[in-house]
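Revision sheet: structure tokens.
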Amino acid sequence: MATKIITVANQKGGVGKTTTVINVCHGLALLGKKILALDFDPQGNLASALGVKQEMGIYYLLTMGQNNKQERQFIHQTVRTTGRDNLWIIPGNQDTRGAQIDMSTRERPVSYVRQVLDLFMKYGLDYIVIDTSPSLGGLQERALWAADLVIVPTAMEYLSNQGVIKLAEILKVLDEKYRWNGKLLGILPTFYDDTTRQSRDSLNNLQEAFGDLILPIIHRATVLRESAADGQSIFEKDPDSRAAEEYQKVVKAVLRAR
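Predicted:
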């Protein structure tokens, strides 16, 4: 199977993007898939939540990765182990913002991130998974265009759902203007609470708008916050929890995607 690129994005922060990246990546890795996670968010939360030190890896990748003549040395300098079988990461930190400025100054094309990631396509990876920052434009736009599959987590609240609609509009523009070859894998409802009308109404609105593109629901769960704080995936923190079962369903949806 050729390496697939998955981008996880939403215009709004605090919707579970990083939590989703961690658990989808580790869930796939536990099934024997070889995964490289990329931390495109300048906050560097993906690295921290996997127990990895924040570094300038993404900055180097985006400013020096294309046409690098010392390819193997460059990969060795930027890719880090997570301490988990089949799962590696290129960490980021606040310097990732500098990479976005560099791309804008140099007027890099919308295809630039995809071109940079060609560097990793011959090393037997099954998936490259990108965690993005909440803001749209620049780096996030290029990360979306790079994707074969896009997952959009959204908390069960009005503002988050509006972010989903706006992001779907951007994907349409990327398709029509730049001939994007990827697809929207699905909308992932997060922080769902069975006891609140807001959650039910938000989910109903999403189902009306996106139909079969709605992925399995992720309920609000304290254990998900605890696992991130402990530098663990949900499959390490509490593999028998409802949250682990729900993210396992998302992993299966990724595996079924073509």
